Amino acid sequence: MAQSPKDLRIAILGAGMGGLTCALALAKEGFKHIEVYEYASDLGFVGAGIQMAPNMARVLDRLGVWAGIEREAVDIKETSVRVGATNGELAHVDLNYIRKTYGYPHMVGHRSSLANGLYNGCLNESAIKFHFSTNAQKVNKFGPQPSFTAVPRDGSPSCEVQADIILAADGIKSQARVEMLQRLGVDATVKDTHQAAYRIMIHKDQIKDDPELLKLINGSRVTRWIGEKRHLIAYPVSNNTIYNISTTQPDKNFAAATNATYTTRGSKSAMLDTFSDFCPMVLRMLDYVPEGEVCEWKLRVHEPLPTWIHQSVALVGDACHPTLPHMNQGAAQAIEDGAVIAVALSRLPDTKPESINKALRVYEKVRMQRAYTLVEMAAANGRAMHLGEGAAKEERDRQFAALRQGKGPVPDKWADADVQREIYGFDCTKVAEESFDDLFNQM
Ligand SMILES: Cc1cc2nc3c(=O)[nH]c(=O)nc-3n(C[C@H](O)[C@H](O)[C@H](O)COP(=O)(O)OP(=O)(O)OC[C@H]3O[C@@H](n4cnc5c(N)ncnc54)[C@H](O)[C@@H]3O)c2cc1C
């Protein structure tokens, strides 16, 4: 048994944003034995952009990796919400106040830039060891000294890995989540959102003769075009060299698919059909994407779980609070999880399994309500942006009209100053540090 908490062996399943942040934050707290098991052979993230809100940047800055990520990102100064069919502007919001108010800007970047920033931070820590191409197949024991079966994908023999703590950051399809909830007798079904997303990128040289789109790629604006049951959100990434477009539309292509299917190569003509009643500029934009570079994602979420912890195992990120992307907070919340887990475990008074379980439950206490509030907010924002004709849409559009006169909230909630105060103003690390003793003693 480990003599000191910092000697505890921590196994992290999954090297997504949640797993990488857990590893780095724990190493920064002085933990010496952190092993990360990742199914993929490398961090080959799909070509897609990501919004990086101030609450994410604050954590990354404390971990020493924000400066490098920020260098390649685009500082968002404004957002515009438009009618998909006409390109008419419903709202324009100046976001320059964000950096001044929260100490960090709202930035957008390439996923690989964010992931590699975290990964390179981990590589600088001798306490962290990576095992790529390894399937963390089954959690066999949840505690004390939990264990799982690691199956190398190159055909080498599988082995049983024992640790003192397992952090399951294995994403929305988390096998550890299913096993944990089975043990607890909780229904672990995935909720169908009936929504899917196309994610595409256009390179600047593809649109060099299109002044309207060049203006968008050279700008510092997030634009959302909305229509019934559909929208597109787009912004420049990678130092304004790529225009990133993410859509949401009713799920047709995955509806009959098995639960294992989450992404597929999308059909360009099906994508163009889906948005055929949107304005010519949007269609032109979509048409620049080369055939074969359309990726479609099924958007899935879970019902909120009653717990994320069983004995010495904790769920992290999308494994326990997957979200629709309509508030741009999924990765930010996985990153907040990592920061809070590190604070909670770093304050362990001893290495007893009971103490480990209590510290993990402090993590859950600090994180669960906030994460699920944001999950619900994202679903609600999607519903509001996707309204069809009727009284609710009239009321929403009345709010957009009032906003154009300088009054009232922003109906697209991620851009509303009061909502941002709740999300960006929350310093998860500080809250965990300040509340740890009280919460731990109450457990
Ligand atoms: C269309 C779309 C747009 C989005 N936009 C934003 C945005 O702008 N801002 C934002 O903050 N968030 C956004 N998100 C959400 C964000 O992408 C996710 O919430 C975030 O990536 C979750 O991170 P994670 O580490 O929990 O899970 P994942 O990123 O899914 O990582 C899980 C990792 O575990 C590995 N794994 C799985 N099973 C095993 C196993 N058995 N053994 C070993 N390894 C395993 C996987 O290979 C993967 O690397 C968006 C999501 C979507 C779908």
Automatic annotation (TrEMBL):
The keyword Oxidoreductase is assigned to this record: yes
SUPFAM superfamilies reported for this sequence: FAD-linked reductases, C-terminal domain, FAD/NAD(P)-binding domain
GO molecular-function terms, A-Z: FAD binding; monooxygenase activity
Gene3D superfamilies the record matches: FAD/NAD(P)-binding domain (3.50.50.60)
Matches recorded under Pfam families: FAD_binding_3
UniProt keywords, alphabetically: FAD, Flavoprotein, Monooxygenase, Oxidoreductase
Ranges of residues in domain FAD-binding: 9-376
Entry's family note: Belongs to the paxM FAD-dependent monooxygenase family.
Protein name, entry field: Monooxygenase
